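Quick review question:
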C-alpha cells in the first residue's frame, strides 16, 4: 500500500482526535479518542490523564486504540484477529484495497495487489512517473509495489541523478532488470523495484522506463581493428629454442554488434520477468531467452531459459556489461559448453538478501548455434549432453548480483560479494565434476573481479583449471575508466588419451592472455568509446609443437538504450 494511506492518514487522524479531545474536557470523548492519546474523565475537573491502551482493542473500528499511529489490521496486535483474516474474495473496491488485509490470499496487500490498479485509494501507486530533472523523484512501475521513495534530495552543483544511487537510505543493491521487477526489497533499504533509487536512476535498468508491460532495448557497436600478429606458428629448433614467427598486419572495420532485446513482465503474472535477446548479424540469431515466475512470497523464482548460463558470471552479461568488451573465452571454453534448454530455481536464503542460492538442470544434444531450436551435430556427435548444479552467492558487504554491470560511472559504496558453485556435466566425449569460485570487491572508484574454474575429467583422467582477474578504476568520474585483466587455461596431460579428439577436445589448448582497456564516456554511460589491446598465447598439446600468438588493438564505439 502506498505511504500516504498507511502513514500520513493515520498520523493526521491521530492529531485531529487529540485536538478534539483536548478542546472540550467536559464533553464525552469521541469513540476511541480517549485511548488514542490521553483521556479526561468526564465531569471531573483537573482529572489525571490516563495513558493509551497497551494494545489495539478493536480491529475493525477505524481507530488507533493504542496510540502507535497504526490502526486495525495494519497493527501487529491484530494479526490473528478474525476481522483481519482473508475471506478469499477479490480486492475489487476502495474499502477492500485499504483494509490492510490480503483478502484474496495472493501474497499482495491492498495497493500492492495488481487487482487494486485503478481504485481511487491507490491512485499514484500504479502510475509511471519519470523523476524530475535534478531531483531523486518518485516513481513506480506498472506491476510494481505501490511504494515511492522518501529519499528525495536536490542535486549539488555538478551532480547528476547517478550520484544519488547508494546515498542516504539507498543500499545500492537493485540496479538490474531482474531485481527491479521481482516485487522484493532485495537490498533491504525499504524501497522495492522501481521505487528504489538504483532502479529509477541507473541507465541500465529499462523495466522502469516508459510505460506498458514490455520494454525494448538495443546495444550497437562498431569496431576498428588493427591485427599486429595472428596465428603465427613459432617454430622450435633442435635445441628447444623458440624461433620468431612472421608478423601479420591487417586493418579491418565492421559493425561489430547489434543486440536487440525485448523484456518486461509476463502478462497476468505479477512480479514475473521475461527476456529475449538476439544478435542481428549476417544471420540473425536469438542468442538467449528467459521466462521467470515467482515462487511463494519471499522472492524465490523458477525460470526456463535457453541453456546459456551455468556458473560463470561473464556468460550471462550483455555486450554493454563486459568490462573487457568480450568474455575471456578460455575461462569457460572447457567448462561452460552450453545446452539446449535449462530449468533454474533460486532466491534469497535470509530475509536481508545477503545469502542467495540457485540450482539448475540443463540438457540438449547437438551444438547450439545461436537460434532457438537450431542444433547441429559435428563429427557425428550424437551422445546426449546434460548438466546439473547449484551455486551459493554471499553479499558479505553491500550488494552485488550476477546481473549487475562491472562498469563504474560514479563512486559506489563498499561492496564485497563471493560465490561458489559446483556442477556435473556430461559432454560428447567428456564426463566431469566442476567447481567455480568468484568474488567481487567494489569501493568508490575501483572494482576487482576474479573467477576460477576447475574440473576433473573422468573419461580421460586429467585436471583442468582456468582463472581470470579483472581490475577497473574510474580515473575520471563520468569520463574515463581504465581496466586490465589477466588469466590462463591450464591442463595436465591425459592419463588415458582418447583414440580420436573430436571438436570439444581439440579446442582445449593451454592459453595465457592479458588485455588493457580504456573506456571514455562520451554521453553519460550510454554512449562510450573503448580502446583495447590484447595479447594472447596458445600452446598446442603434445605431440604438436609451437606457440600461436595473437596481438591486436581495437577501437570500439558502443551505444545502448
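Suggested answer, residue by residue:
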Amino acid at each position: 500500500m502506498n505511504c500516504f494511506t498507511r502513514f500520513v492518514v493515520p498520523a493526521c487522524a491521530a492529531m485531529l482526535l487529540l485536538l478534539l479531545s483536548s478542546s472540550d474536557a467536559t464533553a464525552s470523548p469521541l469513540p476511541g479518542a480517549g485511548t488514542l492519546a490521553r483521556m479526561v474523565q468526564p465531569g471531573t475537573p483537573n482529572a489525571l490523564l490516563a495513558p493509551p491502551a497497551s494494545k489495539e482493542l478493536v480491529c475493525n473500528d477505524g481507530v488507533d486504540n493504542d496510540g502507535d499511529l497504526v490502526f486495525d489490521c495494519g497493527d501487529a496486535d491484530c494479526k490473528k484477529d478474525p476481522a483481519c483474516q482473508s475471506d478469499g474474495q477479490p480486492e475489487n473496491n476502495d474499502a477492500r484495497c485499504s483494509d490492510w488485509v490480503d483478502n484474496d490470499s495472493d501474497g499482495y496487500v491492498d495497493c500492492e495487489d495488481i487487482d487494486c490498479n485503478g481504485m481511487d485509494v491507490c491512485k499514484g501507486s500504479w502510475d509511471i512517473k519519470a523523476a524530475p530533472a535534478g531531483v531523486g523523484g518518485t516513481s513506480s512501475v506498472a506491476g510494481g509495489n505501490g511504494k515511492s521513495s522518501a529519499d528525495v534530495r536536490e542535486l549539488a552543483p555538478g551532480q547528476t541523478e547517478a550520484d544519488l544511487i547508494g546515498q542516504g537510505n539507498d543500499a545500492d543493491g537493485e540496479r538490474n532488470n531482474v531485481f527491479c521487477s521481482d516485487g522484493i526489497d532485495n537490498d533491504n533499504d525499504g524501497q522495492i523495484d522501481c521505487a528504489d533509487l538504483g532502479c529509477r536512476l541507473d541507465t541500465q535498468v529499462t523495466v522502469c522506463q516508459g510505460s506498458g508491460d514490455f520494454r525494448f532495448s538495443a546495444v550497437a557497436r562498431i569496431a576498428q581493428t588493427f591485427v599486429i600478429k595472428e596465428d603465427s606458428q613459432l617454430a622450435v629448433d633442435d635445441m628447444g629454442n623458440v624461433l620468431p614467427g612472421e608478423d601479420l598486419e591487417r586493418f579491418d572495420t565492421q559493425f561489430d554488434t547489434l543486440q536487440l532485446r525485448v523484456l518486461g513482465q509476463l502478462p497476468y503474472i505479477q512480479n514475473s520477468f521475461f527476456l529475449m535477446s538476439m544478435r542481428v548479424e549476417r544471420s540473425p540469431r536469438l542468442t538467449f531467452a528467459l521466462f521467470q515466475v515467482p515462487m511463494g512470497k519471499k522472492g524465490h523464482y523458477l525460470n526456463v531459459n535457453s541453456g546459456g548460463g551455468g556458473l560463470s558470471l561473464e556468460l550471462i552479461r550483455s555486450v554493454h556489461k563486459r568490462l573487457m568488451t568480450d568474455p575471456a573465452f578460455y575461462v569457460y571454453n572447457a567448462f561452460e559448453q552450453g545446452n539446449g534448454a535449462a530449468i533454474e530455481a533460486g532466491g534469497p536464503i535470509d530475509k536481508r538478501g545477503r545469502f542467495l542460492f540457485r540450482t539448475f538442470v540443463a540438457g540438449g544434444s547437438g551444438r547450439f548455434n545461436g537460434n532457438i531450436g537450431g542444433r547441429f551435430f559435428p563429427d557425428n556427435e550424437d551422445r546426449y549432453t546434460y548438466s546439473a548444479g547449484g551455486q551459493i552467492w554471499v553479499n558479505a558487504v553491500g550488494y552485488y548480483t550476477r546481473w549487475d554491470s562491472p562498469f563504474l560511472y560514479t563512486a559506489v559504496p563498499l561492496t564485497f560479494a563471493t560465490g561458489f558453485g559446483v556442477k556435473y556435466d556430461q559432454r560428447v566425449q567428456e564426463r566431469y565434476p566442476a567447481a567455480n569460485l568468484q568474488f567481487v570487491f567494489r569501493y568508490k572508484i575501483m572494482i576487482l573481479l576474479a573467477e576460477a574454474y576447475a574440473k576433473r575429467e573422468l573419461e580421460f583422467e586429467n585436471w583442468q583449471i582456468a582463472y581470470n582477474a579483472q581490475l577497473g578504476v574510474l580515473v575520471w568520474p563520468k569520463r574515463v575508466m581504465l581496466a586490465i585483466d589477466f588469466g590462463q587455461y591450464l591442463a595436465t596431460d591425459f592419463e588415458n588419451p582418447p583414440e580420436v579428439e573430436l571438436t570439444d577436445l581439440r579446442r582445449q589448448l593451454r592459453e595465457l592472455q592479458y588485455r588493457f582497456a580504456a573506456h571514455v564516456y562520451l554521453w553519460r554511460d550510454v554512449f562510450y568509446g573503448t580502446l583495447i589491446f590484447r595479447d594472447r598465447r596458445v600452446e598446442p598439446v603434445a605431440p604438436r609443437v609451437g606457440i600461436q600468438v595473437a596481438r591486436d588493438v581495437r577501437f570500439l564505439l558502443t551505444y545502448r538504450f
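Why it works: The CA atoms of residues 234 and 546 lie 5 Å apart. Residues 1-50, 126-152, 236-240 have pLDDT under 50 and may be disordered.
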